[in-house]
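User: Structure tokens for both sequences below?

Assistant:
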Amino acid sequence: MNPIISRNQMVGKVCLVTGATSGIGKVTATTLAAQGAEVIITGRNREKTEVTLRQIKSQTGNEAIHYLLADFSDLGQVRELASNYKNRYSCLDVLVNNAGSFFNSRRETQYGVEMTFLVNHLAPFLLTNLLLETIQESETARIINVSSDAHSYGSMDFDDLGFKRGYVGMKAYARSKLANILFTNETVRRLGVSSVTVNALHPGHVATDIWSTDFSFIGPALKRVMGLFALSPEEGADNSIYLASSPDVAGVTGKYFVKREPAQSSPLSYDEEIAQRLWGISEDLTSLTQTISGADQQPTSMQPGV
């Protein structure tokens, strides 16, 4: 499915797309730029990010494209990213938490969790909370969390979030994607009645560089094989673009989207107790002292179903 592009659909909107130097993040950023948005992309490597910036400008004719650098395996850099954004921009209409990684072998981190959980959950959790006041400056704003249907295989073992008792790459990835949806639902509950919408999505099975990470010499071959059966990045980005820009989902919040339609995520993803516990642990692990409390808002109840 190809996104329907209106040249002026996003004029006046400011969008931040993380992990936008390749794959569905790059396609998302390019399409939002083609729709007229001011787009800020993030990447880890300066040279690659600058090349991507030039490509998006050339392809769209939109000069209002900028970049910020951050490696999401370092929460200090995530904090710096948020600070740099707030110093340069007064509002944020669309935040697409797209950056993610898969690690076939366990990587220890200084934060008490393994690398997959850090990059895929803790980093966007921290970034979103640090940027929330700026997001709320917009008349209406959208937060989009890129999850995966792999979340349905995930579980939350709070006694071993770091998989010290046996690491399997796909299990770690599934846990991080489940965390994305739990985070989405808990954010909605904490925001209560709000002009900010928060949704998660499954992009489809896309052959991107995420699957060539940490697989040694078989990585490129694995990506090629997956490419025979997987969606293209353009097809995979459709859901993100739709949630970021379509008037059809204005005001829609707390949903999990598959192929532009709300779908039911796993039963575990609706567990409020698990979501609240994950939130508290995430605060501790990221040393975040001020997050969404929702104390002055009418609470929103999340229910399974569509």
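Moving on to the next sequence.
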Amino acid sequence: MFELVRPDASTETPVIVEVPHAGLVVPADVRPQLVVGDQTILRDSDLYVDRLFARAPRHGATLLTSQVSRYVVDLNRAPDDVDRQTVRDHPAPRPTQSRGVVWRSTTDGQPALREAITFGELERRLALYHAPYHAALDAEITRKKARFGHVVVVAGHSMPSSGKGAQPRRADIVPGSRGRTTAGDAVIDLVERTFTGAGLSVKHDDPYRGGWSTQRYGHPDRGVHAIQIEINRALYADETTGEPKAAGVARVEAILLSLLDALGALAI
């Protein structure tokens, strides 16, 4: 349950944008297993990030977006990233992880699952949603690398404006490259210059260093550069109501598209 949109061949660049967490769909066969409401599903999505990148194909980038909610399966987690409390009969569970590839708690610590799911249910969700998404991303990386010699994968995410409690506001943009290991310096530095040049604050790898996908795909020594970009939601949405701010959406979208243009033209 995803959409992959390629640019016209004449304008294509080596850039891929993947948006794994903006989806809101909870299939009817999964809904009874959850105890979260629509407002929680909306709040814990990467709100409107698919909209912010919607015009990426017009700027030469392939756009891959998931429609399924992360409460069904988290596409930025490893397939075996679950614990015994989440999947009761998993043959090799990890230590306690309440928000792995299947979430059993919300971001504010409330229960998300009615009860632990079975290993068979996990395998079904992985086969229907996780594996096809990553197969499509793998194939697109292979295709673009064959054409251009290198690929830049931009993982589009959003984050609450601050952490729990009375923590200070986070930076406007948090690029994550796991300690500058998943992308080359030219890519990382260009990302930072683009956002600071637009008047936004940037804090690399803090509090998000890049997830499983960034680590899995980011191998700059093989010509594949991956960088996660967390966007502060307060820039473009009312965090209380979830409503978009038209001016903020337009501003952030313009900056992101200028970044894609620059990454597409970058000689690596």
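User: Anything stand out in the second?

Assistant: The helical segments are 38-43, 49-52, 119-148, 185-197, 212-217, 246-265.
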